[in-house]
What we know:
Blueprint (H helix, E strand, L loop, with lengths): L3 H12 L5 H13 L1 H20 L6 H10 L4
Amino acid sequence: MCGCGKCEELLQPYLDRELSVAEHAEAEAHLDDCSYCRRRYRFEEALRRFVHSAADEPMAPELRERLAALRIAL
């Protein structure tokens, strides 16, 4: 089972459905057991839904990378 740091690394690819089967299972197991990471996941999921509903055009890959770089590590 992964820890919170590993879960943080996997969270965005998890939301993007870019993980391998093994990584997906690892992230799922951690989210099932960790209320902190589960809250982070719910927040990120809600934020994505809000941004998608508010934006008329897709986010440029460069902006997505810049925003990802601003995330604070655990």
